[in-house]
Amino acid sequence: MSSAAEQEAVAERRTAASAVVNGTRRATPGVPVWPGASTPLGARFRVGPDGVAGTNFALWAAGAEAVELCLFDGQGRETRARLTELTHEIWHGFVPGVMPGQRYGYRVHGRWDPWTGGRWNPAKLLLDPYARAVDGEFALPPEVYGHVRDWPEQHVADTVRDERDSAPFVPKGVVVHDDDDWADDRRPKTPWADSVIYELHVRGFTMRHPAIPEELRGTYAGLAHPAAIEHLVKLGVTAVELLPVHQFAHEDHLLRRGLKNHWGYNSVGYFAPHAAYAASGTRGQQVGEFKRMVRALHAAGIEVILDVVYNHTAEAGELGPTLSLKGIDNRGYYRLQSDARRYADYTGCGNTLHVVQPQVLRLITDSLRYWVTEMGVDGFRFDLAAALARSMHDVDMLSPFLAVIAQDPVLRRVKLIAEPWDVGSGGYQVGAFPPLWTEWNDRYRNAVRDFWRHALPDVREMGYRLSGSSDLYAWGGRRPYASVNFVTAHDGFTLRDLVSYERKHNEANGEGNRDGTNDNRAWNCGAEGESDDERVRSLRRRQLRNLLTTLLLSTGVPMLVAGDEMGRTQRGNNNAYCQDNEISWVDWELLEDPGWKNLFDLTSRLIALRHDHPVLRRRAFFSGRPHSVDGLRDLAWFTPRGTEMTERDWYAPAATLGMYLSGRDIPGRDERGAPITDDSFLAVLHAGDRPAPFVLPGPPWAERYELVLDTSTEDQSRPPLTSHPSAVPLTVPARSVLLLRVLT
């Protein structure tokens, strides 16, 4: 069938379908709408003309023919009013008497023409992209789809408009008024080099905590509870990185299987704290509750970083629901293919926001500034950031998004973390983001995992990763803290599962174990899954100590995942995005087990060691060159023979690596201008399965060494602090890290 004929045939079917579906209610007369203002966008409560209180509504909808504001009372009854003012493609109006707590949405009229990207459908109630609070949950019955989802001919189903009213099935925006000026808040402003990030899920972290009242578990208030903050303070982390807290929706395929999107990477409201995480209410109370959480964390010296998903939305592709942007201006908000029925998908989620469009860029930057200035957050981790850096097609480090961030007086001052890849062609961009940005460094993750399972062909890669990844970041003024080092993240095995499973076990996700990566770079220590063999269990705990010690001694910014410090397991599930249950929730009873309590103590001790010693958190890359007449360098590498590594040594297979960090040659000065000096350390990493001798480097490197940490020891509460002469062999236990302080 030709394109024109297909359109005509489908139009006939659509007319027939319209006769059998419900119509929509008309606008109710008598709702006064004054002209109002086109800025700011969203719903803003204020005092209008003649001192009359009300709310100004403003919505960008460039191609629309008309916009109806829909107000809902406590019983769900809808009242509509046309917004007749149009300024620079923004529809706006001031409605007197509309107070905070009022629920609302929009119906946007326009041409239904999927072949050119037009998907306007006034039967669908749309969420305001600038809504600051959302009341209700998204269900996904057929009524919330702009097209007839169950049309018999599925290959053209997206072109048949569904006329049924979606209002009973979708959440509403809430008018919020909050004049909090944050005068009593004190941001920690932790320098990048001093940061230790702790990735956590608001709900998963608090759901099983016995000291948090049951009614607060799973909420912002639960994370603000003293018991939750006490754990973070004892651990010593400086920032929490929260998995998505923007309002999100659950995917249809999950709801059909009785599951939900637990991680939240399916955003639909970029200004609204996810309502399901609020203990105090969803008529705007979630905003204040989130702010109180931020204040409580700040008071404890902990920054708040948000994991944000601006690359796609929950509306998916042409067969996805119509919830907000798709029905406001599909062509304006989303990247479309040359066949405008189809969406460009650089995210694997069905759609990609068209960030080069000014109004989309404004939506994102307005959202970011809002969370900084009005919600108090300290930074962002950008999911699939390469998708945001694409110009028309290719990733472009001079793209509008990156340029706007670089010059924005608010955003350029906060912490910016890129997940430096997407799923499109040329999307892998590790090391390519410009100054101001840090990056999740997956090459660090891969190298450390491979080293400790003894799978590296040589130690070149490990040397780069331990010392700050200068091969990736030593350009354009970037610093070692551009590398966010991690061994695990929310996506993949937990640390305990990394040493307990070699294969993913995602059957609970209902996808036939096809989801999740197969590239785990894991070693199960001789048995797949949980084991009663004490030798296996002991080896696994040692490997955990090795991995955590390596992470926290490496140059760069370490990131831990909630629960890894006490042996949390997901039972081998490496893609637990849909497991809102004990698989994903932190099990606090683990701390009652002496073995896992020891792991927590070690992690806390390593973080404290890092805080105490600037040589472990350098602000500039190592030079590797002598800085004094005795020939000492700021960084040196040693073989087990006690000799400095040669070019041949770097290319030879090896299980042992010695790293010498000089505290005499730390670049920079303190706040008073004095040189920064510190102790010098030698770290010996040995991945071999048998003990091995290591000759401690002699003068000028050291006369003696003091052993301060040995990961072969189960109980880490008592540091070894044993002295060893230089230039003689020291036996390094199998699969262990030794950290020695230089004695002069």
Describe this protein with a few key phrases.
eight-stranded parallel barrel, 744 residues, disordered N terminus, elongated, 17 helices, alpha/beta
Task: Please specify the SSE layout and strand pairing.
Layout: H1 3-18, E1 42-47, E2 53-60, E3 66-72, E4 78-83, E5 85-87, E6 90-96, E7 103-109, E8 112-113, E9 118-119, E10 134-135, E11 172-174, E12 197-200, H2 202-206, H3 220-224, H4 226-235, E13 239-242, E14 246-248, H5 252-256, E15 267-273, H6 285-299, E16 303-308, H7 325-333, H8 358-373, E17 379-382, H9 385-388, H10 400-407, E18 415-418, E19 437-441, H11 442-452, H12 460-466, H13 470-473, E20 483-485, H14 495-498, H15 534-553, E21 557-561, H16 594-612, E22 635-638, H17 647-651, E23 656-661, E24 681-686, E25 692-695, E26 704-710, E27 722-725, E28 729-732, E29 736-743
Parallel strand pairs: 12-13, 12-21, 13-16, 16-17, 17-18, 18-19, 19-20, 20-21
Antiparallel strand pairs: 1-2, 2-6, 3-4, 3-7, 5-6, 7-11, 8-9, 10-11, 14-15, 22-23, 23-24, 24-29, 25-28, 26-27, 26-29
Helix pairs in contact: 11-12, 15-16
